[in-house]
Amino acid sequence: MLKNFRGRPSLKTVLQASTVAGLAAAVLATGIPVEISRSYAEAVNVQSPSVPSFANVVDAVSPAVVSVRVESRVKPASDDGDGFTFDFNGRGFDDLPDALKPFFRQFGEQGHQGQNQQRRFGQPGGPGRLRPVAQGSGFFISEDGYIVTNNHVVSDGSAFVAVMNDGTELDAKLIGKDPRTDLAVLKVDGKGRKFTYVNWADDNKVRVGDWVVAVGNPFGLGGTVTAGIVSARGRDIGSGPYDDYLQVDAAVNRGNSGGPTFNLNGQVVGINTAIFSPSGGSVGIAFAIPASTAKDVVADLMKDGTVSRGYLGVQIQPVTKDIADSLGLSEANGALVVSAQEGTPGQKAGMKTGDVVTAVNGEPVKDARDLSRRIGAMTPGSKVELSVWRSGKAQSVTVELGTLPADQQASAEDENDQQQAQPPASEKALADLGLTVGPSDDGKGLAITGIDPNSDAADKGIKEGETITSVNNQEVSSADDVVRVINQAKKDGRTRALFQIQSKDGSRFVALPINGQG
């Protein structure tokens, strides 16, 4: 019994004892049993507001998503003719103990069946074996087995295996690939089986902030689902002339490449192709090829195995604000023609150096990449009307598009990429602009013999050894010619002049301020 500080029982203790004694007496007097129980607090149970679940979408689309295993034939690496290609924690055949070499040599002579190929590990001069070199993701786009994935997933492969969400492995054949949009199409033979497939979403209905679900094979783990929102549209990450990516914040990692990003209707809004990550893992910035781009390219690959693109044959660069001012354009939009290649559709139609393409078939051109994408998406042989800004006036040019040759997939538009990657260069034959000039070796233009490192020209990348061929689209061969053109531009109310610079890498335009010149 508890006692108080004086050693006497506390009042609380006395009352508790009295209560228990009273209950005991009641039981003895009445003979009726009395139940004594303890009370406990209830477990936490929060009634949260209802939120949408992605489970229905995932259940519906998962059978259409596959893991793509890419294999390549590895050539024998041994110089002694053994042809052994196994790698045991970094050790080859020569590093094995002598007692083990006969066993593995015999194993190689017997051969090994796998992936429908005979792999000979020990025979001299063997073709090498197929071994996994990459893993990615993909998805069925038709019930008869066509699979969409990324070009960079399959580009180094000799054999391909599609692994379905139920574990079924199917050999796949490469139908076609398009490096410029990083898309590829595989085909599996289901032997009459009809596959679950998905359709493309309407890009016009995809909004920034919409929920999306990414399904794929990150790090080779197999079917994995992540969710997020569309973070941005029209992203240009410098990977090519057709950059027009969706940016999403769903977790996308290595191995997700080629996998689909779905809307909540189970339609493909994009194909995961790249991530921005200093660490190599997801930081919430992923890029997907939009459905509108993929749809047309995939259709061409399924039909012919290749993609036919419209072709102008002109080298172009962006129109900066400085260039727009120098040409008298009110806005820095459109694509500036640096050169029209001889014999190309653009040159035959009369397109000239210094033209600015402002619209295609009446639709405004945003920039050089916009023009490249739109011309490339058109059918070769079709006629297009180009609105151009030439010599301070708007004009119209009709061009019959050619076909971009397969061996020139890195020609016209790639030159455009290089042009955009270089800083604009600007040069003038005037000392006040920081340039020292002299006659050129061939008598055309003005050779730049020196440059002030603190000048606007130097800031814009002009270098000694380059040549000024024109100013405001007028050929120049002396400093007097340059001053004459600049003075006329100032009379026309312009604050900048457009210099065409020739270097060993090609021709480019640079706009320089002319306020202090005269």
Automatic annotation (TrEMBL):
SMART domains: PDZ
Keyword tags: Hydrolase, Protease, Repeat, Serine protease, Signal
Entry coiled-coil feature ranges: none
Domain spans labelled PDZ: 313-367, 433-489
Taxonomic superkingdom: Bacteria
InterPro entries the record matches: PDZ (IPR001478), PDZ_sf (IPR036034), Pept_S1C_Do (IPR011782), Peptidase_S1_PA (IPR009003), Peptidase_S1C (IPR001940)
Gene3D superfamilies on file: 2.30.42.10, 2.40.10.120
Family: Belongs to the peptidase S1C family.
PANTHER family hit by this protein: SERINE PROTEASE FAMILY S1C HTRA-RELATED, SERINE PROTEASE HTRA2, MITOCHONDRIAL
Protein name stated in the entry: Do family serine endopeptidase
